Amino acid sequence: MEDRDDEKKKLLEESRVIAIVGLSPDEQKASNVVAVYLIAHGYRVIPVNPNHAEILGQKSYASLSDVPEKIDIVDIFMKAENVLPVVEEAIKLAPKAIWLQLGIVNEEARKLVESSNIPFFMDQCIKQQHAKLFGK
To answer: What SS3 class is residue 15?
Structure first.
């Protein structure tokens, strides 16, 4: 699989708003660690988690469709078998990219997103990629 570093770097430079689906308020969880990192690097993180009203001081939304602003990147932290409906919802919002975090692999989701011409990253940590690409 090609690395696509140039594409990722451009995407991360041009994006400001990242919706994290499955963001946990638990500081020990990877989704929370990633969100704190992204916020520290100037991104606006929008939590999408129907079980919490607020996470990291931000209003949390029940679904992507409830978010009232344009989302640049949809970053998904969910079990691979649960991502398809979220990916379908994300495609309707036409973000700059849809990203499945490290350890999340869903080929059906990949095919769906690629057929919609939205850049798609799977089984990669956005925090690790950002740190690698920007040396921070």
So the answer is: coil
CB neighbour list of residue 89: distance below 8 Å, 6 or more residues apart: 63, 64, 65
pLDDT (tens digit, 9 = 90+) per residue, 34-56?
A: 999 999 999 999 999 999 999 99
The CATH H-level superfamily of 5-134 is NAD(P)-binding Rossmann-like Domain (3.40.50.720)
Alpha-carbon span 6 to 108, nearest angstrom? 25
Cα–Cα distance for residue pair 74/67, rounded to 1 Å:
11
What average pLDDT does the segment 70-95 reach? 97
Q: Which of 46, 55, 40 is nearest to 20 (CA)?
A: 46
**CB neighbour list of residue 109: distance below 8 Å, 6 or more residues apart:** 83, 84, 87, 100, 120, 122
Q: Where are the domains of the chain?
A: 5-134
Query: What CA–CA distance (Å, rounded) separates 34 from 42?
Result: 13
